[in-house]
TrEMBL record:
Keywords: Signal. It comes from Chroogloeocystis siderophila 5.2 s.c.1. It comes from the Bacteria. This is DUF4398 domain-containing protein. Residues 1-20 form the signal peptide. Residues 22-52 are annotated as: Disordered.
Amino acid sequence: MRKTLVLATLLAISGLSATATPGITQSRQKPRPASPTAPAQPGVVLPSGRGSQASLEYRQVERAGRDIARAREDSYRVSYLARQVSSSQANELLPIAQQIMERAESNFRGGQYFEASEQAKAAAAIYDAAENLYEGELGYVVGKKGPSGPSRSYIEAPQRAQERIARTEAEIQYYRSNDNTVRQLLDRAKMLVANAATPAANASAIPVTNTYNFAYLAQNRAADRLLRAAMHLIAAERGF
């Protein structure tokens, strides 16, 4: 099923359809909602020939298509959640993620598969951050199997966010990143960490399922995800 999804993404980005491609059979999966696509542009030419170079390029195409497909799935999920709960901070992240997705799809069409893959991962991380902020308003984790309590990644988020702020700042300086979105994500992450409600002094004695404590964890995890997105964009900018 994953291979079918990746193939569908490749065809959608390149402006082709499964029915018009010889040898491609229709998937028996239920049709997904149509995703917004950029204006029609020249199709993607998959690498041909033999040898390690063609094999490497094909893997890059497949990886980029898979990352874009995952980011699209995240966008559907978070868009649905946005209609159920209100969070101005989360709402502000959605257009940023969409802009990065458009850059990823454009690079994919242009044959810049590594950049497309990293940008798609960045968009997915921002959607994840938005979801965390919506979860902070709800007071629980929105899991695939239903609401649940915070996992280890939530509990460790305050420490991880602080560590990743330092690492992101170091990478920006070392690689001399000129991507304004990277700095924007860093600033937003810092703001989330600074404004996160500090747990009570006796928080260790209070269950993390407490709404007050969960909001603190969710906000820090959102910051961590924004910093992950920034680092993916830095990787896309430097090309490795």
